[in-house]
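Sync notes, pocket subgroup
Present: LS, DG
LS reminded everyone that the earlier model was apo-only. Rerun requested with magnesium ion included. Inputs:
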Amino acid sequence: MSTLTAADADRNTVGWNFDNTYARLPEVFFVPAIPATLKEPRVSILNHRLARELGLNFDALSPQAAAELFAGQKLSEPFQPIAQAYAGHQYGHFTMLGDGRAILLGEHRTPSGRLVDIQLKGAGRTRFSRGGDGRAALGPMLREYIISEAMAGLGIPTTRSLAVVTTGEPVFRTSALRGAILTRVAASHIRVGTFAYLGARQDEENLRVLADYTIERHYPELADISQKYLEFLRAVIDRQAALIAQWQQVGFIHGVMNTDNMAISGETIDYGPCAFMNAYHPGTVFSSIDQHGRYAYGNQPAIAQWNLARFAEALLPLLDRDEKQAIDLATGVLHEFPTMFEEYWLNGMRKKLGLETSEPGDMKIVQSLLDWMEQAQADFNGTFRDLSLDELPDRDLYRTQSFQAWYAQWQQRFAHNARSAVSARGAMRAVNPAIIPRNHLVEAALAAAEQHHDLSPTHRLLEALTRPFDAQTELARTQTPPPADTNYRTYCGT
Ligand code: AMP
Ligand code: MG
């Protein structure tokens, strides 16, 4: 019989309700993986609010037990650590990948019955690490923590961040940085690239296993219908159309929409060089390695469709025995993407502009606002928030003739609402954030954490980002973007 250590006893109070469904899949899906042994892991930040939502409680964990837990130290039952196998089109080029620095501990079932992956990112080398060190630096892990929690606050489907611990060991990038591990919570980590992996191996049997597993986990309503794989494809396309529309509506730029970074669950996943756009411009790119703007703001819908085409390709063997017939079916559904996207997008834009009903001219009103914003270099989120206020702020750019012309048109259209203007503006403020994780705020928070071990700016930022539609918080006053933001660059940090 094994003896219960103090750390185990602490861990038992956390309230894990663990299962390891992925680890029970056939062997091609993963390899066992053991997190690297660390001498001195330390908690940097714990997400108590998320823990409560998941039915977990860290209050009884000593700081040391928490650090060991989220560093994957001394793992025992119920954790069954694995690295998942997958492939991916990176900047268009197909590669066999797999978790090179992420280790899945298994799945936790929440009190409401939801099954969520608990994954440690930066936990050490796995069989898929290739040349990499399996590690991550504190800055990028805190960045993922902040931005993913901001997305959750905005109501956008996303993986979540439960903890960041520092490893006490340096990681070497262009300089030596403090190593860290992020605990990521996700509906699952099944990606377009997971399907592409089996597709590339021409492993039809396991492709079906994966499709059935994914349907059961994310689309259970499709389990017993005829043509379920085709409907599965359609449902995945639909969720991505909805997701990307939401990204566009807050100016979120993912930065590295490779097919291994597109989750079948429809959650935003793998925050690397992502950032929020300030001045509206469809060509906005922040990522230093995205030199041709493949993943620019305005390209995100088209790239999503391209990625979904790779997903459809992988699914072909399940769609029909006859390849030509399978291609026809897949192509038909893929062609629905632009219409789905546009509908989600336009409906979202109507909400942002406080329009209750739909009218044929709505697209034109939205587009001419965007055209004006582009020409005026107006701040994307700031403009929508200003329009939501009971009185438009007195600013030069709103006094221009070009803006006034648009504004008069909008006011006319706005008057078609049945509800009062005051209530329509209230509804607008509930969808147009007062607070987004502005690049300079994120950088300042990360710098304080990295250089001075000071997490207080991060906590303050996170506090505001959980209530992004509430202008009363202190941070609402700091939302003016710095003027020289066009040169802002983000880095993968891998
Ligand atoms: P990403 O750009 O974060 O989506 O990562 C792409 C691939 O590279 C994934 O397979 C990662 O697991 C792998 N990877 C990224 N950074 C590292 C690293 N430091 N060590 C090993 N593998 C890595
Ligand atoms: Mg990735």
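DG: The chain has 17 helices and 13 strands.
LS: The longest strand covers residues 160-172.
Action: DG to write up.
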